[in-house]
Amino acid sequence: MTQDLTALSSTRDRNLADLLRSGPVVPVITLERVEDAVPLARALVAGGLKLLEITLRTPAAADCAAAIIGEVPEAIVGIGTVLTPKDLERAQALGARYALSPGATPDLLAAASRSEMPFIPGIATASELMAALAHGFHTVKFFPAVPAGGIPALKALAGPFPQARFCPTGGIDEKNAGEWLALPHVVAVGGSWVCQPSDIRAQAWDAITAKAKRAVMAASGG
């Protein structure tokens, strides 16, 4: 059984690494209306951001994710705000490519460790990172990144855990994304600045595409 879980972990790590190469900036998306899902995804993809996180924070979230998966094949859809094993099952049933959580309970880590789906558990402390690593998850979401201590805290965490890779999220924006991405142990950053709920409600797709392009430039040091 241990060998099986180790093999699963290796496969997940490889698949997740492949996904993260698609883009170092992951828009964290909260959608209230299904009709906004596809045009938003197309706007982000047009701006160069293909790796998306659809959060399970609204009643429409699952239908929005399904619409994007079905109609925007260029988008790589992940499900965020995964809080329970049942949420993880929902993400898999929707056809999501990966899943993320803001934190991680023992039950969620155990369920995710038995799954083939790439999963990025949320951590904010050394103990939480140790639990994630013990379950075979070497890439984690540092959340909430800025309130949890920012770059100094992440550097401190990375010291004793050189095998860990981080996707910081929370308080990251166009101005500081490049600074985070310059850290050697950071593989991506997440943030909602690219697609603010107010822009989505206004259907400001051109503005969102422009923000996505600037995010790509910021990530590349431009």
UniProtKB/TrEMBL annotation:
Entry EC no(s): 4.1.2.14
Key word Lyase present: yes
Gene3D superfamilies: Aldolase class I
Alphabetical UniProt keywords: Carbohydrate metabolism, Lyase, Schiff base
InterPro entries tied to this protein: Aldlse_KDPG_KHG, Aldolase_TIM, KDPG/KHG_AS_1, KDPG/KHG_AS_2
Catalytic activity: 2-dehydro-3-deoxy-6-phospho-D-gluconate = D-glyceraldehyde 3-phosphate + pyruvate
Pathway: Carbohydrate acid metabolism; 2-dehydro-3-deoxy-D-gluconate degradation; D-glyceraldehyde 3-phosphate and pyruvate from 2-dehydro-3-deoxy-D-gluconate: step 2/2
Lineage top rank: taxon: Bacteria
GO molecular function: 2-dehydro-3-deoxy-phosphogluconate aldolase activity
Subunit description: Homotrimer.
Similarity comment: family membership: Belongs to the KHG/KDPG aldolase family.
Designated name of the protein: 2-dehydro-3-deoxy-phosphogluconate aldolase
